[in-house]
Automatic annotation (TrEMBL), chain A:
The lineage of its organism: Bacteria, Bacillati, Actinomycetota, Actinomycetes, Micrococcales. PANTHER family: ABC TRANSPORTER RELATED (PTHR24220:SF685), IMPORT ATP-BINDING PROTEIN (PTHR24220). This is ABC transporter ATP-binding protein. InterPro entries: AAA+_ATPase, ABC_transporter-like_ATP-bd, ABC_transporter-like_CS, ABC_transpr_LolD-like, MacB-like_ATP-bd, P-loop_NTPase. One of its GO terms (molecular function) is ATP binding.
UniProtKB/TrEMBL annotation, chain B:
It holds the Pfam family FtsX. This is ABC transporter permease. The keyword Transferase does not apply. Its main location: membrane. The keyword Metal-binding does not apply. Signal peptide: none annotated. It comes from Labedella phragmitis. Residues 57-177, 335-456 form the ABC3 transporter permease C-terminal domain.
Length: 253, 463
């Protein structure tokens, strides 16, 4: 009898996962035998140099991309060989995603983009969910932009709409790929506070990729990635400590 | 502005179809002239003139439709390449030069396509003649059909392809370097530009055209000359409608979309079809024109037929033997009109499937957010169905109006004429439904399958 992901206190987990792109000479190893878990109800930051495999790790964990070998669990579901349809339903009901770029459906306005996960499930938000969405929209400062279409929004506004969408259905698990990358420090802080609250108040598990030590200092736990491997792992740290680790990592490369 | 081969495919096909049609018409004219006109020189010339006129008219209609299709294809390709163009502009490329090179490519594509078409047309004619001889329908000696005149359709098709590439590439000028950096795809620069001017011109054209059409019908009750007034009205109002397509088509699409139900797939499809008026009008207007032409002709001849039947009941002596000739004429002309509709359909399938491919990222995003592959496929199919049903319906309505007006204006004064109700042959309706279904499937199944075969992340990475 193996111990389950839930019993480990994890919301998602990969074991021995590798991911190569291309073949032969030009092949790139984006993930190299990675085993790691995202703790349930915690805010996890993933850091690492550009090209170290952060986005790839999130895609594989969310079932958006397949791994070459190893296993992937979301909750207690082994999604490694899950049929596409089941995988899709799992994404729809249990996972929220904020991509690094191209987050919004260009033909839909901001409000419809936020409500898209409900639409996909063929239902409308109930009273409680509507109230939650309203508060999200207000906190994120996009209340007066709801009728605009993506090309009419700034990069940071698009990102905030995507965050609202990822949190709207209160999924168990939220992946956010540099959600504060396009934001000024004040809006960035608001987004980070929002994510922290989502964890503490609603027990959601959140994984966030960031290059910013200040952003990472909001997290309960920080994973460091380099060349497709997990090279370090810390509990909550100050921005200074995080910077020091990053600098040390760069020095040893 | 270099395009990829698959983006040229439809234009080559359209040019080839037009070229083949031209070659067939020309050879057919020569052959028929030799068969129909005996030996007298004078008779030969007048038959040749009459047949030649008919051939020129139908060829003109075909390359007109082909031109519109090509302009829309080029427009669609360019819409999908906005970011590439913006990047080129950003590093210093001259917009006018980009446009000129796109149009120049049109010459080459038109030439290649029409040459292929001509060769095919000659081949088909050789086959037909051999068949005719073996069944004894054609005499052993037929005139030389391959004449230097065959160069004419090639030149015409090439010029039209060039011109329509030029018109279709207008959009390049509106692309600003800024769009290279926009995170959202498809900034629809051309939906609002000069919208008011366009609207006013279109409304004026339709209003004046409709008045003239009505006048044509009234005058037609007295004299055949009503057709001249009516024709002018038809041309004006139809130009108005083509011009107004970006405003009119969304309304038609919305109507059809409402009938598709309220599942998330259907609703999203309905919104997609309407949200980008430029895109949907580009995809649909060619088919609207094709269906209008076919329906117009069918309704006109069928109304004509009704009048003849009525008249021959009243005055049996004057109309003896008219039935058979009429049926044959209708058959031949249907084929000739049908050809333009085929060109329009090719254009529609291509524009729709191109625009699905261009939306690969968007479809990837939907899949990432929880659309199943099946849902994405159904959505794309629903969009295509909505567009083809809308264009076929719109074309049917326009065709009935124009066909009836034409028949009235030309024949209302005829013996036993007067006002008759428009009559619609059942095969047109059945054909239209079939065409709409086939087109929707043809335009959406393959590209949607391709779009959902890759993982959502791979689709999102496509630029
Ligand atoms: N679709 C792909 N095809 C080929 N190589 C890829 C693909 N996606 C990622 N890679 C490669 O895999 C490696 C890891 O990419 P990934 O996007 O995960 O990096 P990242 O850590 O998110 O970087 P950044 O901070 O710049 O976003 C890179 O070397 C990248 O070039
Ligand atoms: Mg990344």
């Amino acid at each position: 009898m193996t111990i389950t992901t839930t019993e480990m206190g994890l919301a998602a987990r990969v074991a021995g996962v590798s991911r190569r792109f291309g073949v032969g000479h030009g092949a790139v190893v984006a993930l190299d035998d990675v085993s790691v878990g995202i703790r349930r109800g915690q805010f996890t930051a993933i850091m690492g140099p550009s090209g170290s495999g952060k986005s790839t790790l999130m895609h594989v964990m969310a079932g958006l991309d397949s791994s070459d070998n190893g296993s992937v669990w979301v909750g207690d579901t082994d999604i490694t060989r899950l049929p596409d349809r089941d995988l899709t339903l799992l994404r729809r009901r249990r996972i929220g995603f904020v991509f690094q770029s191209f987050n919004l459906v260009p033909t839909l306005d901001a409000r419809s983009n936020i409500l898209l996960p409900f639409d996909l499930d063929g239902r409308k938000p109930n009273v409680d969910e509507s109230r939650w969405i309203d508060s999200l929209v207000t906190t994120l400062g996009i209340a007066d932009r709801l009728t605009h279409r993506p090309h009419e929004l700034s990069g940071g506004q698009q990102q905030r709409v995507a965050i609202a969408r990822a949190l709207a259905t209160r999924p168990d698990l939220v992946f956010a790929d540099e959600p504060t990358g396009n934001l000024d420090s004040r809006s960035g802080r608001e987004v980070l506070t929002l994510l922290t609250e989502a964890c503490s108040r609603f027990g959601q598990s959140i994984a966030m990729v960031t290059h910013d030590p200040v952003a990472a200092s909001y997290a309960d736990r920080i994973l460091f990635l380099a060349d497709g491997r997990i090279v370090d792992e810390r509990e909550r740290s100050t921005p200074e400590q995080i910077s020091a680790i990053m600098l040390a990592m760069e020095a040893t490369r | 502005m270099r395009m990829r081969w698959r983006e040229y495919r439809a234009t080559i096909l359209v040019a080839a179809l037009s070229g083949a049609f031209g070659a067939l018409l020309l050879q057919g004219t020569v052959l028929l002239t030799a068969l129909v006109a005996g030996d007298s020189i004078g008779e030969k010339e007048s038959v040749q003139l009459a047949l030649g006129l008919v051939a020129v008219v139908f060829f003109a209609i075909a390359i007109f439709v082909g031109g519109i299709v090509t302009a829309n294809t080029v427009g669609t390709v360019i819409a999908g390449r906005t970011r590439d163009i913006a990047l080129l502009r950003l590093v210093g490329a001259d917009a006018r030069r980009l446009r000129a090179s796109t149009a120049r490519d049109g010459i080459l594509v038109g030439l290649v396509g029409s040459l292929i078409g001509t060769v095919v047309g000659i081949g088909i004619m050789v086959g037909l003649v051999a068949l005719g001889r073996s069944t004894g329908d054609l005499p052993e000696t037929t005139p030389q059909l391959v004449t230097p005149m065959l160069v004419a359709p090639v030149v015409a098709v090439t010029l039209v392809t060039w011109l329509s590439s030029w018109v279709g590439s207008r959009r390049i000028l509106a692309v600003s370097p800024i769009q290279a950096s926009a995170a959202a795809v498809e900034p629809d620069a051309d939906t609002v530009r000069s919208a008011t001017g366009r609207r006013i011109t279109a409304i004026a054209l339709v209003a004046v055209g409709a008045l003239l059409l009505a006048a044509g019908v009234v005058i037609g009750l007295v004299t055949m000359l009503g057709i001249l007034v009516g024709m002018l009205g038809g041309i004006l109002s139809f130009s108005g409608i083509v011009l107004a397509a970006p405003f009119v088509m969304p309304a038609v699409l919305r109507l059809v979309g409402r009938a598709m139900g309220s599942s998330p797939t259907a609703r999203l499809a309905a919104e997609n079809a309407v949200r980008n008026p430029a895109r949907s009008s580009r995809a649909t207007i060619g088919l609207v024109i094709g269906v209008t032409l076919v329906t117009m002709f069918a309704v006109a001849t069928s109304s004509y037929y009704d009048m003849i039947v009525r008249a021959s009941e009243q005055y049996p002596d004057d109309f003896a033997g008219v039935d058979e000739t009429l049926a044959m004429t209708i058959g031949v002309f249907s084929v000739l009109f049908g050809f333009s509709a085929v060109i329009a359909a090719v254009g529609m399938v291509n524009t729709l499937s191109l625009s699905v491919l261009q939306r690969q990222r968007e479809l990837g995003l939907l899949r990432a957010l929880g659309f199943t592959a099946g849902q994405v496929r159904r959505m794309v199919l629903a969009e295509a169905a909505q567009m083809s049903v809308a264009s076929v319906l719109f074309g049917l309505v326009l065709g009935v109006v124009y066909g009836w007006c034409g028949a009235q204006a030309l024949l209302g004064s005829m013996l036993g004429g007067g006002l008759v109700a428009p009559s619609m042959p059942w095969f047109v309706l059945g054909g239209a439904v079939l065409v709409a279904a086939v087109l929707a499937a043809a335009a959406s199944v393959a590209p949607a399958r391709r779009a959902t075969r890759v993982s959502p992340v791979a689709a999102l990475a496509v630029d």
